[in-house]
Amino acid sequence: MSIRRASQADESAVIALWLACELVTHYNDPSDDFRFAVCGVCSDVLVNEDETGQIDGTVMVGHDGHRGWLYYVATAPQARGAGLGRTLVQAAEQWLQQRGVVKAQLLVREMNTKVVAFYEHLGFEITPRVVMGKWLK
Ligand SMILES: CC(C)(COP(=O)(O)OP(=O)(O)OC[C@H]1O[C@@H](n2cnc3c(N)ncnc32)[C@H](O)[C@@H]1OP(=O)(O)O)[C@@H](O)C(=O)NCCC(=O)NCCS
User: Fold this and answer.
1) Run of H or E residues at 105
2) What gap in Å lies between CA 92 and CA 73, rounded to an integer?
3) Sorting pLDDT into bands at 50, 70 and 90, what band is 21?
4) Residues enclosing ligand 1, CB less than 6 A?
5) What is the structure's pLDDT at 26?
6) What is the pLDDT of residue 1?
7) Cα of 85 to ligand 1 centre, how many Å?
8) H or E stretch covering 118
9) What is 2-106's CATH number, 3.90.76.10, 3.40.50.720, 3.40.630.30, 3.30.360.10?
């Protein structure tokens, strides 16, 4: 596997993958999300390239000065079941550890609970919190 930090040139390939993985919602502009993370000082998008150079996996990672967060964990349908999702999550964890972050967190959409077992398999636990949000735009 060949994981690297995404650059702005990867935007269209990354967004195509997010669309294929049904991670794009009407309330998030994926281009804004990608650019904000790639240009941010506390965030990155990590991508995997297959043997032909195509991007077949992503994870957005960043920290807020306290906790680390993972978003857009995605592997291409044809690449699943081969350890790529695990490798991407581990790469994000390493990214956070290198910056002194001691806890990684993530949000799972209510309609996507089947993926909870994947994260539990990787050592994540459901944490009893009420998550509150407010749009600032
Ligand atoms: C979830 C996802 C990233 C998993 O990717 P993957 O490349 O198939 O995962 P891996 O092959 O690395 O699997 C790692 C381990 O988790 C297990 N696993 C994978 N998906 C699982 C699932 N849905 N439930 C339980 N276990 C799962 C695998 O069997 C494997 O176990 P092993 O290491 O003991 O063999 C992929 O299915 C995906 O992109 N889904 C759509 C996007 C999505 O919903 N992302 C999450 C947003 S919160």
Assistant:
1) strand 104-106
2) 10
3) very high
4) 21, 23, 73-75, 80-86, 108, 112, 114-115, 117-118, 121
5) 93
6) 84
7) 6
8) helix 116-121
9) 3.40.630.30
Distance 22 CA to ligand 1 centre (A): 15
Residues 98, 44 contacting (CB under 8 angstroms): no
Distance 121 CA to ligand 1 centre (A): 9
- Give me ligand 1 centre to Cα 91, in Å: 15
Average predicted confidence (pLDDT) for the chain: 97
Each domain of the chain, given as residue ranges in start order, spans: 2-106
pLDDT digits (tens, 9 = 90+) for 63-108: 999 999 999 999 999 999 999 999 999 999 999 999 999 999 999 9
Distance 128 CA to ligand 1 centre (A): 23
**Ligand 1 pocket test, candidate residues 70, 115, 124, most atoms within 8 A of CB:** 115
Distance CA 15, CA 6 (A): 12
Mean pLDDT computed over 45-54:
97
What residue type is assigned to position 104 of the chain?
Answer: A
